[in-house]
Amino acid sequence: MAAALMRIEGDIVTPQGVIRGLLDMAQGRIAAIAGTPIDTASAGEDGRPLLLPGFVDTHVHGGGGRDTMEGGDAITTIARRHARHGTTALLATTMTAPIGEIEAALRALGPVCRERGAQSARVLGAHLEGPYINPGRLGAQPAHAIPATLDEVLRLNTLAPIKVLTLAPEVPGHLALIGPLRDAGIRVQIGHSNGSYEDGVAALGAGAAGFTHLFNAMSALHHREPGMVGAALAHGEHAELIPDLLHVHPGAIRAALRCIPGLFCVTDSTAAAGMPDGDYRLGEYTVRKCLGGVRLADGTLAGSALTMDQALRNLVQRLALPLTDAVRRVSTAAADYLGLADRGRLAPGAWADVVVMDAGLELRRVFVEGEEIDVVADA
């Protein structure tokens, strides 16, 4: 249970800027923020803690040695491990698999979406990454791609709330599904696609909301064939991006930041997140974590070992983003994309999802809906 009242002092990153002062939490919500506005560049001076909104991750396959497709209690372990790295809300993400296996994963996920477990991030719902993708752009997805039908997706949505669905719009019949899926409250993301620039523009016009792990597993930008990447950069309002600096070159990240207003960061994390080097499950595959990356036996990148606290450090320390913009990319932009006005920001009335870091952006404390998480070092 959240304490009746808790007060934290520090430099508070709010939607209006940084405030040096006090943040009060009560009954799982932010009760008040008071203090003096300061320049972002002086945040964290003299050892003052930084108070940031909890991270929102819309693409989480696993963590803590467990994979979403395992079903059972795997998602509980995953939500706990990511909470220890500052993620306070997430979408559990499935793999391309036979429909029966996806159904089993969603059945296990449904109860966790309805009630947050102790010491856990809030699981907002599912991101269905496949099986409705192009079999020619599987990336690290198993070869079980099939065309989508509206009836099937809506049936799966009764097992656990599908908040995001990745779809290749060039697959016959898919373009016509985008509008009905949007009307059902499911955000369609273009991904794992061999589609042309024109296919991407048509999908956006039909109501597609964004792009899944921009640049990865989609037709690339060429000056005479702009591809799906070109459609995203020219017309996209929202897109995921994996900032582990392995999936996307820093120069490409900078280009996307200039082009896509609502670009937000995801981990695309596997069971290897928060774990030592070794072999882990990703759907039906075994993947190996080594040298900071996660790969199939043939060397293909297969998700990541990234956590959102490291994503923030990469944005600020490696790409030199201002702290306030980096925070927007790991918290606020994803919450806005999901239509959540009370997450991803520190403001009175919002959920008390708070990350406390030092000036070096090392994690010190995490609160999920007012509950303090036991933050300990990973194995």
Automatic annotation (TrEMBL):
Keyword Metal-binding assigned: yes
GO BP field: N-acetylglucosamine catabolic process
Keywords: Carbohydrate metabolism, Hydrolase, Metal-binding
EC supergroup of this enzyme: hydrolase
InterPro entries to which the protein is assigned, alphabetical: Amidohydro-rel, GlcNAc_6-P_deAcase, Metal-dep_hydrolase_composite, Metal_Hydrolase
E.C. code: 3.5.1.25
Organism encoding this protein: Pelomonas aquatica
Chain residues that bind substrate: 140, 216-217, 224, 247, 301-303
Bound cofactor: record note: Binds 1 divalent metal cation per subunit.
Protein name: N-acetylglucosamine-6-phosphate deacetylase
